[in-house]
Amino acid sequence: MSELRGLALRGGVAKFSARASEFVLRIGSLMVLARLLEPADFGLVGMVTVVTGILSLFKEFGLSLATVQRATITHEEISTMFWVNIVVGIVLALVSLVLAPFTAAFYHEPRLYLVLIVLGFGFIFNSAGVQHAALLQRQMRFIDLAIIEVLSLLISSTISIVLAIRGYGYWALVAWSVALPLAGTILTMLQSGWVPGRPHLNPGMKSMVRFGGIVTLNSLVVYIAYNLDKILLGRFWGVDAVGIYGRAYQLATLPTDYINGATGSIAIPVLSRLQNNPERLRSYFLKGYSLVLALTIPTTAACAIFSHELIFVVFGAKWNDAVPIFGLLTPTILAFSLINPPGWLLVGSGMVGRSLKIAFVIAPVVILGCVIGLPYGAKGVALGFSAALTLWIVPHLMWSFHGTVVSFQDVMKVVSRPCISGAVAAVCALGTTSLVNPGISPLMTLLVGGAVLVAVYVWMLLFVMGQKTFYLNLLRDLKNTPSEKINALS
Q1: Separation of alpha carbons 9 and 475, rounded Å
Q2: What is the DSSP string of 265-323?
Q3: In 414-455, at which residue ranges do the beta strands (DSSP E only) sit?
Q4: What is the pTM of this model?
Q5: Mean pLDDT, to the nearest integer, of 389-404?
Q6: Alpha carbon distance 262, 257 (integer Å)
Q7: Of 88-92, 284-288, 470-474, where does mean pLDDT reach its minimum?
């Protein structure tokens, strides 16, 4: 178990390093593209990517998680799932072709026809690498996966920026969406070295397909709930509203996507190995949850306090209309970091049925919030979306942890320490920036306020909240894990 803990920690370092690199790359790309392209370009692609986003939920059909979560698996079973993924990818590309004219008619935007057809090829590229990536994750080769993710994003971002400079407009964003899965699949196949065989049907496949189907349905329900806001805005308020709202939404969800994504990709395989060891399962989950919240809470505070400065620095002055929308969406950063990690525990423990039931409840709650705010435009939708998620947090946590090895009281102890630290740090940062010369640039305000926020938060969390020993022990475990044991486990 000590080897597993060290492997998880080293994998975490690799994933967070990769996510940090990806975050810088993506923010840098957004800063460049936001100045080269118009809000309407982002809005146009944002309309159609909601449709492709729904279809993309089927590209894996949950079979990657089935490969990772299953205690034992054979080469024949993985090969069968590989060919299933390929067929699914081709079907999704054909569905994109069929949906193209209807999507263009729905939005009253003929340019979407060809865009959706081109984006359809991304499904085939992505599906081909699903099982190769799942094998790397199952073997806990997190460093290899981290390198692949960074290189794929670098390649796709470079292509997109070059096309934007050459004046291709929204096609630069389309190219990004297609080049990313293509580069990722090629690199994953090369690194994995696994070659699929012929498909074989056996009794074990039934349970894996069932598991994958539940995971896929869960993702579909949640995706619709979290993206209906952009569909409604596109239908009733046009491309500019979607472009502005979409950039604010993307900036608000980037921290959660990267932090939760990095931790979750490690947590699920680790928790799956511990599903028959309840005490260690509880301990590992709470530590992972604590790390996610420790990173997310100061991020939420920074976005709330410095919404104007962040929009100006990242997107530029012409995106000023996104500032109030971004501010209204900042509570969702914390909300997602509270309600997403319980899914690791449910999936790792094989309790995907409960996760699906929760999804069927959260979807109408979030959709109702968006519909109520729709008459008031992008600001109203942002407020409705954010309020619905915030009100759902406590019921979600109580339901998720009921009857599991983790109690609601355990979670409250984990949540309280970073929350108190974040609140004190936010007050100090806000007080400091109010004393700063109002004539200084938004970048300097962001740097000064951010430095105060981080310094006070770290001091509060480590010393006042007594978390110094916890993080020192994590560093000690990381340092003392021999690399040969890691290689043996992978």
Answers
A1: 9
A2: HHHHHHHHHTTT-HHHHHHHHHHHHHHHHHHHHHHHHHHHHTHHHHHHHHH-GGGTTHH
A3: none
A4: 0.70
A5: 94
A6: 8
A7: 470-474
